Amino acid sequence: MLNNTLNPAQLEAIKHTTGPLLIVAGAGTGKTTVIAEKIAYLVNTQKIPAKNILAVTFTEKATAEMSDRVSALLPDGGLDATVCTFHSLGRRILETHGLEVGLPNNFKVLNDIEAWLLVRQNLERFNLDYYRPLGNPAKFIHALLKHFGRCKDELITPEKYLAHAENLQLDGDSSSLPLARNDNDGESDALIQKRTAELSSAYHLYNQILLENDCLDFSDLIFYTVKLLRERPNILKIYQNIWPNILVDEFQDTNWAQYELIKLLAKGREDTVGLTVVGDDDQSIYKFRGASVANILQFSTDFPKSKQVVLTENYRSGQTILDYAHNFITLNNPDRLEAKLGLDKKLISATKKFATVEFSNPTSASAEGEEIAKNILALKKKNDLGWSDFAVLCRTHQIVDQILPSLTSRGIPTVSAGASGYLRTGAALNCLAAFKLADNYHESPAVYRLLNSVIYDLPYEDASKLALFVKRKSVSLYQAVKAGVNGEIKLSTAGQICTAKFLADTAKLSVDAKTEPAIKVLYNFLENSGYLKKLADAPEKNYRDIMALQALFDYLEKFQSDNPDTGVGAWLKYYEYALEAGETGEAEADSADGVPVLTIHSAKGLEFEYVFIPSLVDLRFPAVNRSEAIELPSELVNEKVLPEDDAHLEEERRLFYVALTRAKSGVFLSGAKDYGGAREKKLSRFVSELEKTNKVKLNDHSLTPSSERRGKATISPPARGGDEGAVRAITTPQTFSFSQISTYQSCPWQYRYKFILHIPTLGKGVFSFGHTLHLTLQKFYERLIALNSARQGELFDAPHISPPARGGDEEGVGAITVASLEELLELYRANWQDDWFYSAENKARYRAEGETILKNFYAINTKAGWTIPLGLETGFRFKVAGADFKGQIDRIDRQADGKIRLIDYKTGRPKTTLTFNDKLQLLVYQWAATSISALAQMGEIGTLSYFYLNDGTEMDFIGAEKDLAKTAATVEEIIKKIQARDFTSTPDKETCANCDFRDICEFRK
C-alpha cells in the first residue's frame, strides 16, 4: 500500500510504470521517498520481482539511505533489489565479464592518490617533455590524471586520441588543442601539436601501466563497462533481461559515459523501457568532475516519448527561502529545463513556517566568524535546538578552515571535512614524529613535537633549558635530552621523569624499526608510551584524535597490503610521495553531534534548520573561473547542448542555490570588508542579484522585507564561551553484526574499545589466512557457477546472491563442470593476503598449509560430488530491536532432499561438541533465512553446517523453534544493552589474555 502522505505529483511519478519518465525534483520535494516508494509499488502492486529492479545513485551514503528506505517498505527487506552506485555497478559487471575486454581477473581499483603514486613511480617511462619540467618532474601528474579521467568520461579511447594527434600533425589545425592554460600565447602550431602528441602518448601508456599492474582507476569502471556492453551484445542482453526496470537518482550529475551506460541498458526499447531518471538541473554542481547538465536537458530528445513529472511541493524550507532561491536561479535562463520545456519549477512550501534570509557585512574575517558563533549560540538557546541543526556552508575548503577556529574557541563543537584531513591532526603528526625518530634519532623537530605533546608533556622551563643547550653546544635536541638525563642539564623532577621515559621509548622504537613493519612499530610505540591509554581514558575529550588514529591505521594497513617493503623507511618514502600527491587523509564527517562546517558541494542532499553562508565577496563566491589545467580538444568532446551564457557563472549560481535550499527556517549570508590585503573587499555579485530578482534593498543587515520580519531573535553574546559543546557525546552503532554480538558476549568493555571508541588494533596472521581461504573458495565457486551458467538459464538473479541452479537434477547432481585443482591453487595464490604474519617462516608455514587444505577440499568434493551453490557470500539485513542487523552467509546449497543447507567455513580447530554460543552464528543465519522472504523462498532450512577447512570435517545441526526463540532473545538483549550503553566489564584470565586491549584496560586480570 502506498504512503497516504504522498502528494498528487509524487503519486503520478510512482504509478507511471510503462515507458521512460523524467522526474524533475526540486530541492526538498521528497525525491528519495518517491524512488523508494516506486520500487515498493513495482514489487508490491505491479508484482515485478525485486531482482529485476536496478536503482543507481552517486554515493555510498545515498545508496545506504536508499537501501534503508526500500528495506522498510518491502516485506523481505528489499534483499533482491539492486541499489548501488554507478561505479559499484560497473565493478560488479566487470568482475564477472572483464575477461571479455581483456581485463585481469582480480583487478584493483585505484583512488586518485594511488593513481598519482603509480604514475610517479613510472614517470621515467613516459615520453614527456613539456609535462615533466626538470625542476619539478611531478608538477603535472595531477593535471594529467584529471585529463585522462575526462577522456574516459567522454569515452575517448587511447587509439582515438592518438589518431586525433596524428591528424593534427597532418593538417596543422591547432584551433582547439589541449594545452596547459594560458600557455599557447605566441607559440607555433608545431609546438602545440607536439604537446598534443605528448598527451595522447601518455594517455596510451597510462592505461597500459594500469593493466600491467592489474589495476583500474575509477573512470575505468564505467569506461570498460560501456566498452563491454557495446562490443558484446550477448552480455548486454543478459543485463537488459535482469534489469528491465531502472531508476537513476541525481541524474543531473551524470557524465557522458554514465548516461551512455544507462542508454545501452535501455537500447532497443527506448519507448517502453521502465526507465525513471530523477534530477534537478538547478542542482547540477559537479561539472568540475565531469558531470554534464546537458544530459538532463537532452533526455527528452533521446527519449521523445518520455513523460515529465515536476515535483514542486517542498517539505523543508519556509516560503521566503524558496522565493529568494527560485527568483535568483531564473538568472540562468534560458539554459534551464523550466525555460526549455516550459515547466513550472517554482517551489511551494508545505511547512507554512516563518523563514528569514538575512545579510551582514562585518568589518573583518574574524568579526564574521565571531558573528556566526554568536548567532548559533543565541538561536540554539532561544529555540532549544541541537548543534547539528546549524550548518556553515562554504565555497571552498580554505573558507572552512578559516571559520572553524571562531566556533571552537567559543566551545561550539564542530563536524567538518575540511582541507586538513586526519594526516594533519595533532595525533597523526605525533605518529609521524615517532616514525621519523625511528628512522633517525637526530630529527630535532620530531623530538621537539613529541616532548611537547600530551604523550610526554615536558614542562616549559625544561624545554627552554634543552633549547638553550642545543644552541650553546650545537648539538641535536636528542643529544640535549640525553645530556639532561645524564645530569649535564639541571631539569626539574618532572622533566627528568619525562625525558628518561622518552629515551626508553625511542630506544625501543629504534629496535622495532629494524625488524617490524611500520604499522607494528607505531602500535608498539603508542602502547609503550601510554598514549593509547591516555586517549581511551577520556574518549569524549579525545574523540577526534581517536578517530584520526583509526583512520591512520587503516591507511597503514592499505600501505602494508599494497607494498612488499612494509618497513618504516619505505613507509616514510610512501608518505612523502602521498603528501606530494596532495593526500591529507580526508575522512568522512563523524556522526557525533556538532555544527557541520562543510563545503557546499559536500552538503548536497543535507538539510538544516539554520544555514550560514560566509565569504560572499568578489573572487570568493562566485569563485574565479579556473578552467581545466589541460583541456580536452573540442573535437573529442561529446557534449552538444552547451549553455548559451557563461557556463562557469551558471554553475556558481546553482551552487549558491543549493546552499540556500539546505535551510529550513533561516539563511544568514555574510561577506566581510576585509579578508587581508590592501583594499576593502567588494561584495559578491550574488548579493546584488538577490536584491534585483527579489526586489528588495539591503536594510538593517537583512534581505528580508521589513513587513515579513517578525519574531526575530535578538542576538547578543552569551556571558561566557559556552563550554557545553566542548566535550562531545560518543554515539552507539546504528547497524549490528554477529561479530559485534560475539565481542560483547566475550566482554562488553572490549566491545566498547573496539566498536564505540574505535581504538586501533593490529591484525593477526591467522585472520589473514582465514580471509584468503574464504576469498579463494568464493572465487572458485563463482568460476564453477560461470562454467555451468548455460544450465542455469541466467548468469545471476540478484545482488549478493549468485545464480541459483535451475531444473531438477541439475541442482547439485549430475555432470557438473568443475575447474581444475591447479586453477583452484592459482586462485589461492592470486588472493593470498600477505599481512600480519609474525615471521617469514610463519607465513611460509601457513601458505603451505593452505595448499594442503585446498587439495584436501578438492579431493573430498570430487569424491562426494560437487554442488552448484544457490548463494555465495549472501548478504542479508533485517530489523532487530529497532536497529539494522547485517550479515553474510558463506555458502548456500540445496541438499538432495530439496532442503537448504547454510554453510559457514571455519579455519580453527574442529570442535567435537557445540554449545549454544558456538551455534549462535548459524542460528542467527537460520533466523534471517526464515525471516526474509527472498531467502525463505529458496526453501526450508534442512541443515546448518560448520565446515572446518583444516581437516574437511563438518559439524551439522538445525535449530528448533526454541533455539530460534532463544537466539532472537539473546541478540535483542545484547543490542538493547549496547543501545543503553551498558559496557560492564566481565574479565577473566583467558579472555583478557587474548584481548587486543589488555595493555590499556584497567579491568585486566
UniProtKB/TrEMBL annotation:
<comment type="similarity">
    <text>Belongs to the helicase family. UvrD subfamily.</text>
</comment>
<keyword id="KW-0238">DNA-binding</keyword>
<keyword id="KW-0547">Nucleotide-binding</keyword>
<dbReference type="GO" id="GO:0004527">
    <property type="term" value="F:exonuclease activity"/>
</dbReference>
<dbReference type="Pfam" id="PF12705">
    <property type="entry name" value="PDDEXK_1"/>
</dbReference>
<keyword id="KW-0269">Exonuclease</keyword>
<keyword id="KW-0347">Helicase</keyword>
<keyword id="KW-0234">DNA repair</keyword>
<feature type="binding site">
    <location>
        <begin position="25"/>
        <end position="32"/>
    </location>
    <ligand>
        <name>ATP</name>
    </ligand>
</feature>
<keyword id="KW-0540">Nuclease</keyword>
<keyword id="KW-0067">ATP-binding</keyword>
<feature type="domain" description="UvrD-like helicase C-terminal">
    <location>
        <begin position="326"/>
        <end position="605"/>
    </location>
</feature>
<dbReference type="InterPro" id="IPR038726">
    <property type="entry name" value="PDDEXK_AddAB-type"/>
</dbReference>
<dbReference type="GO" id="GO:0043138">
    <property type="term" value="F:3'-5' DNA helicase activity"/>
</dbReference>
<keyword id="KW-0413">Isomerase</keyword>
<feature type="region of interest" description="Disordered">
    <location>
        <begin position="700"/>
        <end position="725"/>
    </location>
</feature>
<dbReference type="GO" id="GO:0003677">
    <property type="term" value="F:DNA binding"/>
</dbReference>
<dbReference type="InterPro" id="IPR014016">
    <property type="entry name" value="UvrD-like_ATP-bd"/>
</dbReference>
<dbReference type="GO" id="GO:0000725">
    <property type="term" value="P:recombinational repair"/>
</dbReference>
<dbReference type="InterPro" id="IPR027417">
    <property type="entry name" value="P-loop_NTPase"/>
</dbReference>
<dbReference type="InterPro" id="IPR014017">
    <property type="entry name" value="DNA_helicase_UvrD-like_C"/>
</dbReference>
<dbReference type="Pfam" id="PF13361">
    <property type="entry name" value="UvrD_C"/>
</dbReference>
<dbReference type="InterPro" id="IPR000212">
    <property type="entry name" value="DNA_helicase_UvrD/REP"/>
</dbReference>
<feature type="domain" description="UvrD-like helicase ATP-binding">
    <location>
        <begin position="4"/>
        <end position="318"/>
    </location>
</feature>
<keyword id="KW-0378">Hydrolase</keyword>
<keyword id="KW-0227">DNA damage</keyword>
<dbReference type="InterPro" id="IPR013986">
    <property type="entry name" value="DExx_box_DNA_helicase_dom_sf"/>
</dbReference>
<protein>
    <recommendedName>
        <fullName>DNA 3'-5' helicase</fullName>
        <ecNumber>5.6.2.4</ecNumber>
    </recommendedName>
</protein>
<dbReference type="GO" id="GO:0005524">
    <property type="term" value="F:ATP binding"/>
</dbReference>
<dbReference type="Pfam" id="PF00580">
    <property type="entry name" value="UvrD-helicase"/>
</dbReference>
<dbReference type="InterPro" id="IPR011604">
    <property type="entry name" value="PDDEXK-like_dom_sf"/>
</dbReference>
